[in-house]
Write a structure and sequence with these properties.
This protein is of the alpha/beta class. The chain has one domain: 3-Layer(aba) Sandwich (Rossmann fold), CATH 3.40.50.1820. The longest helix is centred in the C-terminal third of the chain and has 16 residues.
Length: 289
């Protein structure tokens, strides 16, 4: 999971609930000093939340973009029902479409869409369902199909545990399964407490349903390549969920812009936010030029 480096919103951002035709979603909304060049919707990944993008907000606003990070249904501060059917990929994609429509300005300008990890798969599904609300798609640390074999084992164990144990017990067991790169850096107490709180706030059926999606996601790159929308693939220099060469090949198949963030792993948004923000702003600036 992403570990945000801070929980303090920058002065350019505020927290509120975004009303859409599919309900209200908790968001962090950052705006530049003047009129924004465009609006970007940031969709978090598995076990994630809007806080995963908190370090990106100020760099993106400083570059002239409005950036809105969202908790999806059943994630952290956005409630969701206790039932797996509510969390199919199709339902989550419709949520993203509704969020994008709610963020369009009075002129109906489309938004830049970014999805991290699982959020990349959901964002892809939203674009394939209806690309009209979007001016570009960025997939951040997200691959062409199911996650790597080693991570599939971890996710299966997690799904099994969620089916029999309470969330607190699963949390304790999950800590034992953290990848080595996650264990290398000490987590500040306030961040550790937030991660624990976020986990307990997340609807277990959301985790079960989305975990299964990551295990069974088909390769839909050819379908996405046929959508006439600018595309961007970003990853760290290493990734435990999808091998970096696999994302390189996906970018080629998509004819997408490709960015590798050095010294970053699966969460460049949290690990190297300045470099990630600069890459996003440059891509979106080119799209809007």
């Amino acid at each position: 999971m992403s570990r945000p480096p801070t929980l303090t919103l920058p002065p350019c951002a505020r927290a509120y609930r975004l009303d859409t035709e599919r309900g209200a979603f908790a968001v962090h909304d950052a705006r530049p000093d003047g009129p924004p060049a465009a609006t970007a919707l940031l969709v978090p990944g598995f076990t994630g939340s809007k806080e995963d993008f908190i370090a990106l907000l100020a760099p993106l606003a400083a570059a002239g973009f409005r950036a809105v990070a969202v908790d999806g249904r059943g994630q952290h501060e956005t409630p969701g029902p206790r039932g797996e059917p509510a969390y199919t990929q199709g339902e989550l994609a419709l949520d993203v479409l509704a969020q994008a429509l709610a963020l369009q300005d009075a002129d109906g300008e489309p938004v830049h869409l970014l999805g991290h990890s699982l959020g990349g798969l959901v964002s892809r599904a939203a674009v394939l369902h209806d690309p009209a609300p979007f001016r570009s798609l960025t997939v951040l640390s997200s691959g062409p199909a199911a996650i790597s074999a080693s991570q599939q084992t971890r996710v299966r164990l997690l799904i099994d545990a969620l089916g029999t144990l309470d969330m607190e017990t699963v949390w304790q067991k999950m800590q034992e399964l953290d990848p080595p790169e996650a264990a290398d850096a000490a987590t500040p107490p306030e961040i550790g407490a937030f991660l624990h709180r976020r986990w307990l706030n997340t609807v277990p059926e959301q985790l079960i349903a989305t975990g299964r999606q990551m295990l069974s996601e088909p390769d839909r790159v050819a379908d996405l390549a046929a959508v006439p929308l600018p595309k961007h693939v970003i990853s760290g220099a290493v990734d435990y969920a999808w091998p970096v060469p696999l994302m390189d090949a996906m970018a080629e198949r998509l004819s997408a812009h490709r960015t590798t963030i050095e010294r970053a792993g699966h969460s460049p948004n949290a690990e190297c936010p300045e470099a990630t923000g600069a890459a996003l702003a440059a891509f979106w600036g080119d799209v809007d030029a």
